[in-house]
## 1
Amino acid sequence: MLRLRPELGVLCVGLACTPHERPQEPSSPCAAGMVLIDSDALGSLGVPRFCMDVMEVTTAAYGACVQAGVCTAALGGGVGCNLTRADRGDHPINCASWEQAQSFCAWAGKRLPDDAEWIVAARGGSGNQLYPWGSAPPDATRACWDRKQAGTCAVGSAPAGASPAGLQDLIGNVAEWTRGRDQDIGRRGQLRGGSWQDRTYQQPIDERFADSARDEPSEAASVASGLRCVTSPHTAVPEIDDSAWTPQALTPTPDGGLPVLAAAPVRTPPTRPLANFTALQRSPGVADSLWPIGEGYVALDVAVASAIGLTDPLHRPTFPTSLQTFEVLRSLGATVLMSHGSWNERKYLALEPGSFKIRWQADLKSRSYEQVVAPRTLVVQAYGAEVDALVAFALDSGREVWRMPGGADAAFLRVRRLWLDGERGYLLGDRGLAAFDTVTGALLWSGVAVATGCGVASAEDRLVVEDPGAGHRRIDPQTGATLSHIVGARGECQWDTGTWSGTAPGVIEGDQLLAFDPPNADQVATLRAFDLQTGLERWRRAQLGVELLLADHDAVYVARAPELLTALDAASGATRAEVSIGSGYTATVEPGGGAAGPLVVVEAELAGTWILGRAEQPAVPEAYTIRGRLVPQGISRKRVANVPVRVGERRVRTDVTGRFEARGKAVGAVGVALGTNVGPDQGGSRVRFEASAVVLTGQGRYELPDIDLREWELY
């Protein structure tokens, strides 16, 4: 509850103020619980005076904001978050992200301090002293620090560490968020002052971040991240009633407490029509910043990521040399899960992205082909000489929590594929399909027959085993029992990821199964949609490429032609939108994205990374003219004539000078490549050139640089 403090305003009641009397300011320019920071002692930062909270924001105060429905629960550090403990109301709030800190201060009528403001306050009236209280090193009387596993202290527990203005806990207890520095585009949040976890402070105040090793800002929460707020002088702020906050409960788990650190992203229904699907942003080439999206990370330029609302980037150039080759797998709240090594010796670690401290690391010391990140555990296939095993590591500590060996009496000897449905794991092995609990390793059921070459489709408590002979079988995820058959399937098995057929596996979206018929020699086939309950065919769409099949809510994404991404209406199969990628590509559907979501992330061979989603209006295809010229390199000039060139979906031939021109309409990018895939060994073209992509930017006419034409070399 918020109540306005009357003493902070200027009140004239009845005849207390004469008509021409100048109202009197209160004795202090700052609200209760705040002190005035008058100026920068050295004047080097140019900071005007401001009011700052004497104490760090308490758990009870933050809890009141949660109770009011404004703040979200600060649980970013998992186990160890003060908001889960009733006895920590007078401790500082921790596990708060930069966004949560911003929200609280705004609710309290304040804001986060700028980086320079925090530094001025921590200098304690002198520009060259080491600590707010002076030059004496920290100890238990001056700072809540070096507490190992004990956690935070009650605010103000170290009064000897107060600054001359009376500010408490500037050093230690929790690291405090600032608004960062304006020049840090895409790197907004900054943690200052160290925390209860730290043991040494070596930098001067204006270089000291969350701990003695930290040299990068971050926006993610941890058990050490908290906040305090500031205002301008003479600002009225509401009074916070923190007497009735409610601790937040962590969901208990069967093993006694593994926290959820990798929850599946929430899928939200789209708010804009599928007809508005288009290219929203594009990052050409290789970007240095990795941004969390969905269940993984994507490399994007800062401007591109900011435009679609992504936050919490990892800047790979800042990684220590020893970590440059690690693959970033998943955000775990305060840490990032990474892996390194080839399939025959793989290592995993959880890293603090700001300090580059390794929280834990696990060495599988075995070959591994499959891994899945469950909400609480990392489950890895350990390949043995004659038999496999599944091994699970806790995401919060890296300790091995269970092991499921294969064997004569087990559900498998070999594991071909692993995947998840929430905290239920599935394995497809040499003895069929089985389900297991990812937290405890308990086998839920096993022995569901899956023929050689067949695969499985699953989504949100729905499961279908491919079986074109008897009809695909709908399986009960709870028991493994067969519920019904889908009898319209044709041909041979083609979903198994262990055999390369080039055909995308079937997918489940809502109450229907989507699957391709077997393709013809040109890798073109009919897509069919089946009702999961009745097994009947709902609709079909012919003449589609078979290498892409994705779905989300009202959309089915396929490739009508090799370089086109086509969005079909999930209810009818009708085309609603189409984006030209300009080259070969891979694509994933990621939840979120706000009004533009769900997002489709495309990694194009020639045109970089694309973010596709729903704009405010449908995209209008651009009418384009593309012109180019082939220039001989080490071959006769005559051979530039009559060369087949593919421009988008058009096929043209060069004139005697090697020039070509093509017209068309498209959204996205247009590929330019040799117009045949048949080489001289098959009686085809004896020349070739490197393919390229023309990104359509509204110019209408595009002149390509000269294109080198060379002899087709057989390798």
Note: The radius of gyration is 31 Å.
## 2
Amino acid sequence: MPALKAIHIDQPAPRVRRIEFVAADGGSLPGFTAGAHVDLELGNGEARSYSLLNDQGETRHYVIAVLREADSKGGSSWLHDHLREGDVLQSSPPANHFALSEAGENSILIAGGIGVTPVMSMAARLKALGRSYTFFYCARSREEAAFAFELGERHGDRLKLVLDGGDPARGLDVAALLAARPPGGHVYVCGPSGLIRAAREAARDWPKGTVHHELFKGSEADVAIRTNDGAFDIVLKRAGRTLRVPADRTILDVLKAEGIRIKTLCRDGVCGTCTVTLVSGKADHRDDVLSEDERETAIQVCVSRAMPGETLVLDL
């Protein structure tokens, strides 16, 4: 297991730390391929995986970038608050579960937030190979788009910076982008679960093995293609009523049709306004707002549905 020494730390964005490591013994590091990551043993006893953002195969150093998560359980907060230049951490050799298909003729790279890190290495490799690629980098603002300037200098007009100001409606139109597959096309997406799910759904008809994703946070269930759109029942506990939600309508649609007032804003599961207490039943959560704990007792009625065979009891 390689021992890595931090030799340089900087801050390319307000909540992002870039950390450069070299081998603690002064030797070479194991080579890696674009999209790879290493597992670091942190000084607080935790272990975390971090993508390598530098160019493929470099053996002089490894570079990672770490976003300080608001709900960090000790990974990102420790690296931000405690790691100093000269400190040594134990690391696994690089592993790659998000590998670049170098045989692809056209690559579409989509990165959201700190998900840009493995995609940076991919873009560098594609440029070195002389392959066709377009790099979409999604962020709230230019200030929060770590590495935007250096990526622009390196990739020119192949880099498309998409700034939504926190409003998903102003973000990348993934459905339109992936509606038609380019010849020999592959798509790579890394970022929030909603972005990954949108890409997988938009490219659901692409050939097997051409849609690649890596999830930094959450579970595979959060990015699964949504095919569970059958009808189901909801029970309004306080009203003592049972309502049917058809396959082509949302819970919110049905409630409003029955004169039940629910406050809404986005209707896309991203603002949290239409949260309703979930008394019982297994929900198919499709929002980007609720935490795993909150999903036990709440549901966003604008987008979420019931799991197959389930009836949802709502506190209404």
Note: Residues 3-91 form a domain with the Elongation Factor Tu (Ef-tu); domain 3 fold (CATH 2.40.30.10).
## 3
Amino acid sequence: MLTDEQVEDFVRDGYVAIRGAFSAATAAAARDVLWAEMAPSGIDRDDPSTWDRPVIRLGEHGEEPFREAAASSLVAGAADRLAGAGKWAPRVSIGTFPVRFPCEDGPGEDGPGDDGWHVDASFPGEQPEAFLHWRVNVRSKGRALLMLYLFSDIGDDDAPTRLRVGSHRAMAKMLQPYGEEGAEMGALIPEFAATEGLPEAWATGDAGDVYLCHPFLVHAAQALLPGPGRGARFLAQPALLGAPADLDRPEEELTPVARAIVLGRRG
């Protein structure tokens, strides 16, 4: 179970790390499956000369190691505490996986091109096939939490996801004028940029760690730069689907996810 201090850290900062949420052996078994999936595209786990692109995106996986990671009792207990018991849908698979390889070009024009600051959208708009037209509203309709599953050890030099500390509360205030309909991802780019001055943290840890993030936490990828012995980086970023946050209850009855939104709206 999360401690009261960890819950308050989540409300203030927008994330909490669950260390050892699933085993290193489970993570290793999952990596075996992902390497096998990439092999037909010419990626050889034992030959870095075949790692000829900065990132490969893999979809959902429901094989045993992924089901075991998804069913982590530590993640479930923390999700109950943060989003509310019975307010979220258990996962039976894990995805998507941006598998990153050491990239000489780094971020920028010739790099992965996916390192912009953003929040993850939670429900479709009029063009469900177009990601930038997906929407976010102030109740976080459709998404209870953003989760970052570390399937390999990720240190400071292993392209950890960047997190803007406290940005979830700033985003709550900026989402308020959009009402229940919310806003499209593309329309929120100025709001994401407005969080630039906030402190930055990196989602580092060991294989088997899971970061549970407020759905409004502004975050960004980064390129995996070359280095001695640098291997591929494996991380999954599944949504924890759930009911919209109930913001109208008495303050003492609000979930931590909802309380952070209410505090953010107040400024």
Note: The mean pLDDT is 93.
